[in-house]
Specification:
This protein is an alpha/beta fold and 220 residues long. It folds into 2 domains: 124 residues, Rossmann fold (3-Layer(aba) Sandwich); 66 residues, Arc Repressor Mutant, subunit A. The protein has 10 helices and 6 strands, in the order E-H-E-H-E-H-E-H-E-H-E-H-H-H-H-H. It has a 6-stranded parallel beta sheet, with helices on both faces. Helix 3 runs parallel beside helix 4, helix 7 packs across helix 9 and helix 9 packs across helix 10.
């Protein structure tokens, strides 16, 4: 199939990788390209295969999932990162998002929730259950970060950014606001410029830190 979501799985436990592979490959729109048992292997395979989505555990040998996510961002690779981990501590969540992760989901999630998260991340949405989103918001609001000067966002740009934070696609934002998808893209480009960021994840993270938006929940 030409429109399959191409996936790389990185976890240092073979049984975990096999379990994830099994239910992902049951999906007609997904293909698991490769597996990695540590962060260095993950980087090599990501560079080689350029998957649509890299599923990364946080704590791995040689390089953590956060380090791999940071590397993906710094290399400018068109690879979306979904963190799949047992850790729901606020610092881990914040570090993953700030490293460029597009989603954060726990290993005790149901298989269909992980499948939905992969699809959401592949579509450019933020994939994060509401309790994880609230922990992220709590961490960012309590962190002693001095306010940065950012160019003021318009009311419409804040409206668009708020919908981006909830995981909405450009198409659904356009439908809700009764504007074209091209206009939505223009608003998002303006938001990126004003916040001095390069991705939806960075925009949401910075806006949360600045108190510009509040994250009510996210993609299930």
């Amino acid at each position: 199939m030409g429109n399959e979501i191409r996936i790389l799985i990185c976890d240092d436990h073979a049984v975990v990788r096999q379990g994830i592979r099994d239910f992902l490959e049951e999906q007609l729109d997904m293909q698991v390209l490769a597996e990695a048992s540590d962060g260095w292997i993950a980087q090599t395979l990501i560079a080689e295969h350029r998957p649509d989505v890299a599923i990364l555990d946080i704590r791995m040998p040689k390089a953590s999932g956060i380090e791999v996510a940071t590397w993906v961002r710094e290399q400018g690779l068109p690879v979306r990162v979904l963190v799949l981990t047992s850790y729901d501590d606020e610092p881990y969540i914040a570090a993953a998002v700030q490293a460029g992760a597009n989603g954060y989901i726990l290993k005790d999630a149901q298989a269909d929730q992980i499948v939905s998260a992969v699809r959401a991340v592949a579509a450019g949405q933020l994939a994060m259950k509401s309790e994880i989103a609230h922990k992220l918001m709590s961490h960012l609001s309590s962190a002693a970060v001095p306010p940065e000067m950012v160019e003021t966002l318009t009311e419409r740009e804040l409206e668009v950014l708020d919908m981006v934070a909830s995981g909405a696609t450009n198409r659904s934002i356009g439908r809700t606001l009764k504007i074209s998808e091209r206009t939505v893209q223009g608003h998002i480009a303006n938001i990126f410029g004003k916040l001095q960021v390069a991705s939806r994840t960075e925009a949401v993270t910075k806006a949360l830190r600045q108190g510009l938006i509040h994250l009510p929940g996210a993609t299930e």
